[in-house]
Amino acid sequence: MDQAIFGLVTLLGTAAVVVRAYMARGRLFAAFAAVVLSTHGAIACALFPTLGWLQFVALPLQIVTIVNYFMLAKPKMRTTAYRVLVSWPAAWFVAGSLISVPWAVALALGFDPPLTWLGWLVALGGIRQSLALTEEDVDLVLDGRPVRGLRRVGHGLQRTPRPLRVVQLTDPHLGPFMSVERLSEICERIVEASPDLVLLTGDYLTMESNGSQTALTQALSPLKELKGRCYAIRGNHDLEAPEEVAAAMEATGIRLLIDEAARADTVMGPVQVIGLDWHWRDRKPRMQAVLDRYPRVSGVPRLVMLHDPAAFALLDDGQADLVFSGHTHGGQVGVFNLGFRRSVLSLSSIPDHGFWGLGSNRLYVHRGTGHYGYPLRLGVPGEESVLRLHVLPS
């Protein structure tokens, strides 16, 4: 296979995608497609002469990748056949290219690095991980003890006879790796677990499912069986289709909290649930206004839903027994598979996953039910857990 042909297909295909993206979905999506395809294309073209056997499938894969991004200009949930033949191979090919940046840099510097196909081999594991969830039972002790600085905290050793059982569903991102059927099956398992509360913390849609009208309603429909126990907030992607999200929540009996609070009556007694909406600007005063409007109730656990864990540090001390967040997908790329609970976000100040503390406030960051953004999960599995909250007197 000639490198020039591969490069020409990449150049013309990328141009066609960007033009269609701009005309169909606007400048933002066109810029997104241009960055992804040009970065991927440059790496794949640079490594092409060294790929050996992979050269024979590189051109078909590049065509499939271009088709995938071309079709993304029209929001639509795809068939199983389309996902298997187009969406997943395109995600794999792009992910493999991005992993291969070190090899491309080495070539540019005049070196002759071995195993230039290794990035694509590693990315194959990401396909499997993007389609799987890890089932867990997690005990969280809420004792109100002060924690100095934002940091991970232990889950605690004390236990109450009957903890509050909560299932969090976050970032399903209906699309290539989360079909309506798959999310519906996850919701059926939630119903079987019969938790005291189900908290949905945002990002239900993707650019594929925006505008699908009924997809989210169908996927969440099993949760009708838990009416009165389910509460939801919006994430950043949900603001792209707010009417669709609101209609789905209403149809399935899930209470959507948009900067408001609700009293949940559980077998453990009343629980105050506060839903903080996604805001791009003035986050701290907006969140504080909501929390001031709904003050603590003496003796009642106070649970706060906040899509982005980066905003947790903006809360004043004592505002929440436990904050539930998602958004990070657990960091999405990390080394969980090697036995280390670290992701690329571990190098930042943003809580990526797990149990955190700051002052007397506590935070649980769910690794996500699905994923979006970087083409694949890699080394960070998704999460399907039951959280057991042991609320101790402070």
Q: What are its keywords?
A:
394 residues, single chain, 2 domains, 13 strands, Purple Acid Phosphatase, chain A, domain 2, globular, alpha/beta
Largest sheet: 7 strands, mixed
Helix content: 25-40%
Q: Which band does the percent of strand residues land in?
A: 15-25%
Count the helices. How many?
A: 10
Class based on secondary structure composition and strand pairing: alpha/beta
Choose one word for the global shape. Answer: globular
Second rung of CATH, namely the architecture of the largest domain? 4-Layer Sandwich
Strands of the largest sheet, in order across it?
2-11-12-10-9-8-7
Distance between the termini: 69 Å
Overall pLDDT metric: 93
Could you name the CATH topology of the largest domain?
Purple Acid Phosphatase, chain A, domain 2
Alpha carbon gyration radius: 22 Å
Q: Please provide the ordered H/E string of secondary-structure elements.
A: HHHHHHEEEHEHEHEEEHEEEEE
CATH class of the largest domain: Alpha Beta
Whole-number tally of structural domains: 2
Q: How many strand units?
A: 13
Low-confidence stretches: none
3D architecture notes:
The chain starts with a helix and ends with a strand. It has ten helices and 13 strands. α1 packs antiparallel against α2 and α2 packs across α5. The protein has 394 residues and is of the alpha/beta class. It has two domains: 125 residues, no CATH class; 258 residues, Purple Acid Phosphatase, chain A, domain 2 (4-Layer Sandwich). The longest helix is centred in the N-terminal third of the chain and has 23 residues. The strands form two sheets. Strands 2-11-12-10-9-8-7 form a seven-stranded mixed β-sheet. It has a six-stranded mixed β-sheet with strand order 1-13-3-4-5-6, with helices on one face.
